Amino acid sequence: MTRVEEILDQVGSLSPLPGTVLRLIHVINDPQSTVDQIVETIKYDQAVTSEMLRIVNSAFFGLTREIQSLHDAMRCLGTVKVLQLVMAVHTNSLLCKPQKGYGMAPGILWEHSVGVAIASSLIGERIGIANRGLLFTAGLLHDVGKVILNEYVAAEFGEIARRVAELKISFLEAEKQVLGFAHDEVGGQIAEKWQLPEPIVLGIRYHHQPNALDVPDTVVDALHLADCLCLLLGIGLGADGLSYRADEAVMERHGLRESDLEMIGAQVLMEVQRVEQLFGEHPSTGESRELCAT
Amino acid sequence: MVEVIDIADLAVTNEPQATLVTHSLGSCIGITIWDPETHVGGMLHYMLPSSVISPEKGKAKPAMFADTGIPALFRAAYELGAVKKRMVVKVAGGSSLLDDKGTFNIGKRNYIALRKIFWKNGVLIESEDVGGAVSRTLRLNVGTGKVTVKRRDGEVEL
User: Fold this and answer.
1) Which of A229, A260, B125, B130 is the most exposed place for a label (fewest CB within 10 A)?
2) Rounded to two decimals, what is the model's pTM?
3) Domain that residue A57 falls in
């Protein structure tokens, strides 16, 4: 089997997303969804429901009475917040493992994903995308391709890093040259296999190359800006560092200025730190954060 | 004892066994200061050039911005007996993405902000490792004043 075939095979054998999550993503994607439909989607999943209630009742939210149901939680915190928490709980187990190929200690890819999720919702709000739940989910999953590509990058890291340094190309381009696939393509394939809504598939596939689309896409644009911003601010950086291309046309397209990005950046950092507190983990404390790639 | 400085945070100490470290410096800038006489050391990891964009955040989290964080770092060190004219100052970070023509250039703006503040206050930079598209880890050994920068291509003394 060639390496390209092997990578495709791995995508094919990746376990499916839990049914609850998949249904939830589709419910979020539909702007007509009601609170009842959302509760209906989650309530039979005991693990998710109890984890949600644990988080909502943690000292963090400072609620004065105990929340006993999902309905209650949505009333107190708002539907979007609750949906975001459910998605964050789920992707935590998928994304929290160390990604040695990308020089990421445990928790770092998840931290980056949460950062991009938060940043894309804020950017979406700024540029007028109504469905922030969808953007949050797309942000959480934008780098899912790294989970598969990780071991191949680990094996070829020296060659990829050499090309980045000597040929002045991006980490993405070097991945593609050396492995035959880059993590955005692999991510797009995973998203298709999981039958995620089309805007999320597109977002994951093109978050590094918004200009590769004939018709610009606002979800792709929001993800691209969010990813650039989190890389710049060092929210979940790996050994690939900042070796990615930034597309300034996206900023112009939405009438954004540098000060807008800075404002959003400041807000993103505060929120990421809140979420990390909420989940009782903070990867940046301790030496474990050290880049582990060679 | 290793103390980790988060994004938008700072610390000073005169504990000789202490090592101050900050990870994931992208466009953010890390500054170390060290007084060779009192062995007071400090580190700041700021993320944006100016608190003008959000004065309330500048107040709540001064280490987020160059204009509020740098004075806060020096003041905290003075309280432990450090003296400005003896201070050894080192700087790392300020990276950029590729193809960056200006809009995303937080790293460069962060660095310019620092140079302006240092110039106004007569502070000299002893050594620095800034720019590029890399992520850096900055470390200060408070007992010896030794500062190192780690990038994906290895760790060097600054």
Assistant:
1) B125
2) 0.91
3) 3-279
